[in-house]
Amino acid sequence: MTTLRIADGRVLHPDFSVTESDVLVDRESGEIVAVGDVAAGDETLDASGCLVMPGLVNAHCHAAMTLLRGYADDKPLERWLREDVWPVEAELTADDVRVGTELALVELIRSGTTAFADMYFEMAEVAEAVADAGVRARLGHGVVGVGKDEDAARADHEESLAFAREYDGYADGRVRTVYAPHSLTTVSEELLREYVPDARAAGVPVHYHANETVDEVDPVVEEHGERPLAYADDLGLLGESDFLAHGVHSDASEIALLAERGTAVVHCPASNMKLASGAAPVPAYREAGVTVALGTDGAASNNDLDLFDEMRDAAMLGKHAAADASAVPAEAAVEMATAGGADALGIDAGRVEAGRNADLAVVDFEAAHLTPTHDAVSHLAYAARGSDVRHTVCDGDVLMRDGEVTVFDEAAVRERAADRAAALVARAESE
Ligand SMILES: [Zn+2]
User: What does the alpha-carbon distance between residue 95 and residue 423 come to, in Å, rounded to a whole number?
Assistant: First the structure.
């Protein structure tokens, strides 16, 4: 056993207590071996002045959309997609997706995120980038039926399932997969009825968007005579390992249904606020026992991938929407970004304790904006930033050490991404 000792810091425990502790990691198994007083390790990571916390989980993302960051803002979802996003995405190449994903991975690692769920295209490139980055991911090829004839739509479903089968367990098991129909209104009922059973037979979970805007609710009610998540349930889309993004407009019957089925919801507060989609009923989900995770959504609707921002936004939006300062407290925000995310994605992490995967973020608290520290959890939710992360560890490997990303040449990734993004937009605008 080769060990890594994360030494002389304070540790955030699963019960949200904080104590001075070391963390010992087995580099080979990638697991946490001990939390407490640890005499020595083969290698040491200095955590003095820092808080060792679970690596953050970004449970709903479209990583390569980093290339569209700041390209188009300030429009509602439907117009933004049709006028700006989809025309550019039509020009995306596999190389663009690779470079955009690498840029996202640098940003995720820099801000202490060790796992993410991605729904996009050219997913083999995303899987390769994840293999290089050393993080964990739940990846799915997003199926969109809008604007396609039946053969093309069918091919899209086949591709989603083929990717899910081929890449599950890739990169030493760090890559797991999903079948990813985009949403209940952009994919036909007929094809969902045909392909969801195939995903079930292959043991592949499902990740999709649901109840993001009212425009995704009313058409389903009109066409099917039932609420979107009742319709999803009829289609077999509320499995225990499934997770849906947004869930902004779920009503009490849908919240109860999610709790009963064990399906998780990924709350994306920044994207929901930016696109004026509404405020998800997070306190009601949590009270009902629904697993709630946090996601940034794509960088084009956020506009960054910093989960610390997302924790703060989740707490602030929750309070504001409920007109109740105790709705979504700091601990709930941190729990959703760590254990909630890990549970939604089916990853044995999200808690700093022996036997779990060593997916960790070491946050430097020696900063003016984190002084004094009356309550470390309060700081994580309300004052810390992604740039406060000093080391990022995943599966026992150090992906960032002392603020230096070890797995990519960051300057080269940024330069390639800027070049690719400029060429991509130029192609789209000359169409
Ligand atoms: Zn999304």
Answer: 12
The sheet carrying 292-294 orders its strands as: 207-210, 243-246, 264-267, 292-294
Return the H-helix or E-strand segment holding 219: helix 218-224
C-alpha of residue 117 to centroid of ligand 1, in Å: 10
Output the CA 276–ligand 1 centroid distance in Å.
Answer: 14
pLDDT in tens, 61-105: 999 999 999 999 999 888 998 899 989 999 999 999 999 999 999
Distance CA 399, CA 395 (A): 10
> Cα angle vertex 340, ends 336, 343, to 5°?
165
Question: Is residue 119 over pLDDT 90?
Answer: yes
The helix/strand/coil state of 217 is coil
How confident is the model over 178-225, as pLDDT tens digits? Answer: 999 999 999 999 999 999 999 999 999 999 999 999 999 999 999 999
Q: What angle do CA 171, 62, 306 make, to 5 degrees?
A: 90
Give CA separation, 363 vs 46, 64, 87, 104, 360, in Å.
11, 26, 39, 20, 10
CA 218 to ligand 1 center in whole angstroms: 19
Quote the strand ranges of 282-378, DSSP E.
292-294, 360-364
Ligand 1 centroid–CA 401 distance in Å is: 31
